[in-house]
TrEMBL record:
UniProt key word Kinase: yes
EC class: transferase
InterPro entries (UniProt xref): P-loop_NTPase, Thymidylate_kin-like_dom, Thymidylate_kin_CS, Thymidylate_kinase
Role according to the record: Phosphorylation of dTMP to form dTDP in both de novo and salvage pathways of dTTP synthesis.
PANTHER family with a match to the protein in the record: THYMIDYLATE KINASE (PTHR10344), UMP-CMP KINASE 2, MITOCHONDRIAL (PTHR10344:SF4)
Organism (species): Treponema peruense
GO cellular component, one term: cytoplasm
Protein name: Thymidylate kinase
Source organism superkingdom: Bacteria
GO molecular function, one term: ATP binding
């Protein structure tokens, strides 16, 4: 199922998804809402603590936690953080004619949680969630991405070279799964994340401008 008016940015840590989301915020009007996963919900806050290394869990447990956070993010009532970030209610917001842009979604789980646990677990947990109308996949090698992570400060638990190298493989595999019938109705835009920031922003805006919501 495709969720209209829903846009997702995907890529490993250091791929530049957050940078591009912040650029896009400055271009869009009030009919656009912005969010990210883990969400700002209580479950999402627990996940951020886990990513910081404060709560050790197995990768299988992490898969269940990310799915629980995603369910709240999608299906809860619309709510916002003090700085205007959408905390929950993606489905309702999209249904009301808002365009929701999310930094990370099910494809992150299919990539990150397929390592050190059976890939069938994240696939099962995420099988019932709707697909975005438009998916931007930021492709980059792990070494380059990690150098960017190191330039901005401390690392999270998944930000290790060997883990991210495996994650890149799983990401590409997961995205490719949805290029055919499985992802029917979802547009996938592959982005070389090593391109200049301005060029990537141009690619993103060109594709968003083609959406029906922009022509209404």
């Amino acid at each position: 199922m495709i969720l209209e008016n829903f846009i997702v940015f995907e890529g490993i840590d250091g791929a530049g998804t957050t940078t591009q989301l912040n650029i896009l915020k400055k271009k869009c009007g009030s009919n656009f809402l912005f969010t990210a996963e883990p969400s700002r919900s209580p479950v999402g806050k627990f996940l951020r603590s886990m990513l910081g290394g404060n709560v050790p869990v197995t990768n299988e447990t992490a898969a269940y936690l990310f799915a629980a956070d995603r369910n709240e993010h999608l299906n809860a009532d619309i709510s916002f953080s003090e700085d205007g970030i959408l905390c929950g209610g993606i489905k309702k917001a999209c249904g009301q004619g808002k365009c929701v842009v999310c930094d990370r979604y099910i494809f992150s789980s299919l990539a990150y949680q397929s390592i050190d646990c059976s890939p069938s677990v994240p696939r099962m947990l995420n099988s019932l969630f709707p697909l975005p109308e438009l998916l931007f996949y930021f492709d980059i090698d792990a070494k380059t991405a990690l150098s960017r992570v190191d330039s901005r400060g401390s690392r999270e638990i998944y930000e290790k070279l060997d883990f991210l190298e495996k994650t890149v493989i799983e990401y590409r595999k997961a995205i490719d799964e949805y290029r055919g019938e499985k992802g029917s109705g979802m547009k996938i835009v592959d982005i070389d994340a090593t391109l200049p920031v301005e060029k990537i922003s141009e690619i993103i805006w060109t594709n968003i401008a083609d959406l029906p919501i922009m022509k209404a």
